[in-house]
Design brief:
The protein is an alpha+beta fold. The protein has 3 domains: 56 residues, 2-Layer Sandwich (Uridine Diphospho-n-acetylenolpyruvylglucosamine Reductase, domain 2); 152 residues, Uridine Diphospho-n-acetylenolpyruvylglucosamine Reductase, domain 3 (2-Layer Sandwich); 112 residues, 2-Layer Sandwich (Enolase-like, domain 1), CATH 3.30.390. The chain is 31% helix and 19% strand. It contains 13 helices and 12 strands. The strands form 3 sheets. Strands 4-5-8-6-7 form a 5-stranded antiparallel β-sheet, with no helix packed on it. The protein has a 4-stranded antiparallel β-sheet with strand order 9-10-11-12, sandwiched between helices. A hairpin with a 2-residue loop joins strand 10 and strand 11. The radius of gyration is 20 Å and the shape is globular.
């Protein structure tokens, strides 16, 4: 399919990118690697007349200790020895994004900002016209849960789940300057609204706290094909252990709702306890019970729900094992 016509802007600084965005009104998109945006444009899914490329903004590609520029390529992070040693769970989520070729182009910020997905949305223009348009593109009714208030398209970025579990912070630049937002406060439960960003805002940096290096973390993903596909469900976890006693535990379920889901009321039960098979079984069952997918992707809701429980059990069992096995 052919891309629609648009004007490509190539700023070299964050301030220049924001200036261009201001001049475009609301008729623009930022582009990082383009691995999600451009296929959507080909399907005529909400294309804009202005695209602001961030490729030349050197500041967005710089990384430091526990800090990653939004334009960091996923393939580079995957191969970086320091990142693999310090944050194996983040690398595990990156390794499951699409294919090696896509990861060479895709960016960390772009994966966080990946478009929400739905069986009725991610289709060609001809398919959507024959079925009837949904409220996310060209229509006014959600076809998953018929009503006009909330879009039930599912969040489908892989890295967000691990970053939430590790308590990451996002640096955001906008027309009013820079601010920092906790990852757990970033996402919004609407497939159209998606997050707290306002017009012109862009994620510029992802920062992990120092204690994230001491956490055991990982990510498991359900998808139709073992390469290329977006998640139909995913589970991330991060656990801090003192000996074999849990000091901190976070479990995040991904790609079953409009946002990644956290379960503080469930994970709090593990604090001060040993991560035994019995406790793991209890946690897995509780997380699965709280997960309520709807029919918005290819796999049926009950199967995704059961896989959430299975993945939670497998991941926590692995993280509770010897350090080399957990990593």
């Amino acid at each position: 399919m052919i891309l629609p016509a648009f004007r490509l802007h190539r700023p070299s600084t964050i301030d220049e990118a924001l200036s261009i965005a201001s001049s475009c009104g609301s008729d623009f998109d930022y582009i990082g690697g383009g691995t999600d945006l451009l296929p959507n444009y080909k399907n005529r899914l909400n294309p804009r007349r202005n695209v602001i490329a961030l490729w030349r903004v050197a500041e967005l590609a710089r990384s430091g200790k526990d800090s990653f520029g939004a334009m960091s390529r996923l393939g580079a992070l995957e191969q970086d020895g320091e990142t693999r040693r310090s944050h194996p769970g983040l690398v595990e989520s990156i390794e499951q994004v699409a294919t090696p070729l896509v990861r060479q182009q895709a960016t960390l910020g772009g994966n966080l900002m990946v478009e929400t997905r739905c069986y009725y949305f991610n289709q060609s223009a001809d398919w959507r016209s024959s079925k009837g348009y949904c409220m996310k593109a060209d229509g006014d009714v959600c076809l998953v849960v018929p009503q006009k208030e909330i879009c039930y398209a599912v969040y489908s970025g892989d890295t967000a789940a691990v970053l939430l579990a590790l308590d990451a912070t996002f640096t955001i630049h906008g027309f009013q300057g820079a601010r920092e937002v906790k990852a757990r406060e970033f996402f919004q439960p609407d497939g159209i609204r998606r997050n707290v960003l306002t017009r012109g805002d862009l994620i510029t940096r992802v920062t992990l706290p120092a204690e994230a290096r001491r956490r055991r973390s990982g990510y498991l993903k359900l998808r139709l094909r073992d390469s290329f596909d977006f998640p139909d469900a995913g589970v991330a976890a991060a656990v801090g252990l003192h000996g074999d006693v849990v000091e901190d535990l976070q479990i995040v379920v991904n790609a079953v709702s409009m946002t990644p889901l956290m379960f503080p009321e469930i994970t709090a039960r593990a604090h001060g306890e040993k991560l035994t098979p019995e406790l793991i079984e209890h946690l897995a069952a509780a997380v699965a019970a709280k997960t309520q997918p709807v029919r918005n992707v290819m796999f049926p809701p009950q199967y995704r729900k059961r896989m959430v429980g299975l993945f939670t059990r497998r991941l926590l069992t692995r993280l509770a094992g010897p350090r080399s096995q957990a990593a």
